[in-house]
Automatic annotation (TrEMBL):
Domain Carboxyltransferase intervals: 32-311
This protein's name: Biotin-dependent carboxyltransferase
Statement: the UniProt record of this protein carries the keyword ATP-binding: yes
Keyword list, A-Z: ATP-binding, Hydrolase, Nucleotide-binding, Transferase
Top-rank taxon, per record: Bacteria
Lineage, uppermost ranks: Bacteria, Pseudomonadati, Pseudomonadota, Gammaproteobacteria, Oceanospirillales
Disordered: region residues: 141-161
MF terms in GO: ATP binding; hydrolase activity; transferase activity
Pfam families named in the record: CT_A_B
Keyword Glycoprotein: no
Amino acid sequence: MKEATAQVASLRVVQAGPLALVEDGGRFGVRHLGVTQSGAADWVSLRWANWLLGNTLNSAALEIVIGGGLTLEAESDTTLALAGADLCAELDGEPLEPGGGFRVKAGQRLVFRQPRNGLRAYLAVPGGIDIPEVLGSRSATPRERLGGHAGDGRPLQAGDRLSWRGSADTVRRLPPSAGASDTLWGDRLALVPGAQIGHFSGPSLYRAFNAPWRVDDRADRMGVRLVGPTLQCQLGSMVSEGIPLGAVQVPPDGQPIVLMSDRQTIGGYPRLGALTPFAAARLAQCLPGQVVRLEATSRAHALETHRRCLASFC
């Protein structure tokens, strides 16, 4: 499928968009040091982008938020792959749809504009973007100034270069049965109830799982605020505890905050529970103003769904 080569290929950033970061599967085993997980906000789309090129599924790729005119120029002939959101990408003016690999010639320019569907696109390169690992990951974490293209967590800037040493001999497209775009559609977010859910009032729990929630514009890689009915918790002060991906905290204003890839490592607000990893990936693709609904699920069902999701990449 893919063979290693000593030849270095690269993309040059001609124009920087609002937020383009190098992300991989995440940084694990360091939360006891206060270092967050990071990694692709939509881990499902990252895996599909790498699958298209035959890469290791968690290889470093480019996470592109909104697009906003990000322009990349190929400095050599290569094959790239695109998955996730449709950001109206164009290659020398020709539209590119996500969900496939494509050939690029030296000098051609790849431009990302405004979202047509979803929020985050993932651009994979053969073998993964070749940058040094920091604490076991290449992922950029802007808040902690850690990792990424320059090692300081910053987004791409004009003049930066992304390089790699791999090669891809075939161009894949996602099969219809893959369900690769499932993270982009549907308003249901599966949530596994947590230890504090019994401290919320009955009316609050009814509203939490039966009322619509709007994705607020106060949303980033750290957390996504949901706006809707006010939730009331009878629990007083809490000792801070570890925060998993997708944790749904409810601060005193009663508006839930879903904690994402760049979340803090501990927190002291009561939690309804946590979104499943797949639901967290789906939320990462929601634009501000989009309406979602929380749907309670069991731990056993969540694990089975997660296993099926992982098996789809085989």
